Amino acid sequence: MSAATTATGSLFARHALLPQGWADDVLLQWDDAGTLTCVEAGLPAPAGTERVDGVLLPGLPNLHSHAFQRAFAGLTEHRSAEQDSFWSWRALMYGFAQALTPDALQAIATQLYIEMLQAGYTAVCEFHYVHHQPDGRVHADAAEMSLRLVAAAREAGIGLTMLPVLYQASGFGGKPAQAEQRRFLNSVDGLLSLIGRLRHDGVRVGAAPHSLRAVPPEALRDLLGGLHGADASAPVHIHVAEQQREVDDCLAWSGQRPVQWLLENAAVDARWCLVHATHLDAYERRALARSGAVAGLCPSTESNLGDGVFDAEAFVADGGHWGIGSDSHACVDAAEELRLLEYGQRLTKQRRNVLASAAHPQVADAMWLSAVAGGARASGRSIAGLRVGQQADFVHLAAFDDAGLSASQRLASHVFATHGARGVRDVWVAGQCRVHDGQHAGAGRAAEAFISARAHLLEHR
Ligand code: NGQ
Ligand code: ZN
Fold first, then answer.
1. Contacts with 26 (C-beta within 8 Å, 6 or more apart), sequence order
2. Which of 57, 192, 298, 455 lies at a CB distance of 3.0 to 4.6 Å from 327, suitable for a disulfide?
């Protein structure tokens, strides 16, 4: 579209990372819905248009979040078992989940979503399973907890895909749920009615069968049928093959590995996001890549929980799509997640610049663009970067402004060599500036409410 199109918002960027690579002197315009109507390079700066001289990046979608877990980030780094593991961490996590109130959830999520914006994420997929009261009784409004997350996202101004979680069992073969899991439980009909309610409220919504451990085959089939009957494009996210124990238990239950089982028993396609998918054999990896589903990688959480290393190099070579989630929020920083992902590959392969590509020899360019594309696919929203028809979500990096570096070198420095600098200066979501000069206007208020919510959890867990 031409630069003359009437638009409600516009921005002129000296350097911008477009889907095909870096461009100079880029004019961006968007309409009153926040959808880009013009992205054109090589233009003179129009008079009266705001101009950014640092580098402009497409906003990164965060494809996996359990917001409440932000409250105890850093507070499980102590020995709680003879040999601490994912499973001993989960026991501590359940203690915090038990103490969560609607007010606390909203306060924690508001703080978290503001932190995400300040760190370069412009959208989040919320994998939400703490639905009911601690004893499992349904709130007066069954959607109470979900609505608190929606309110937090609106307050912060971050894009949201809600993924209400179906949870029914404590292990393969329909093992009965434990007492600490009661607040997570729903019938398929209960979950579908929650999804319908959120859709009615204008929320972008999909569904998340928690894992093959927690959702028996018939429930999985009924959920998918109901979801896609109502919305054929709704995203589906599932935790899978994060821990070797899950692989072993799935083999004992079905004779198949979890991703193999899923690919053979559900119509996994581009609407799907397989979160973690850490432990894949070559057959599963190729079939997953072919399916068009996104691998939802959460490098900081996977490191923190001792999950293992996803073979991203082989998956990309197979044509696989991937994106980034911050999951347990031990880290809320898009650049740090990309760095950890690349470093995991370097450490296991004893090579460098593993996730660079022929089209993008700078590894940070290649990774940022892939994570935006995969994150957008997993979000089920039009947030796939700086092009016409996508939402006007972008991040202005200002660090290294005057250091005589190219745009590509500035992004590489932001991902691999920040030296304590906060690189993210301004952030727009749907064309609205939510972070200005590194700060969100609601940050102070949110931090206070967060600290009292956390104190409540620490006292009542
Ligand atoms: C969760 N988190 O649901 O919060 C999970 C742990 C489970 C991660 N997998 C619980 N990172 O998988 O059973
Ligand atoms: Zn998770």
1. 12, 13, 15, 16, 18, 39, 40, 41, 43, 56, 386
2. 298
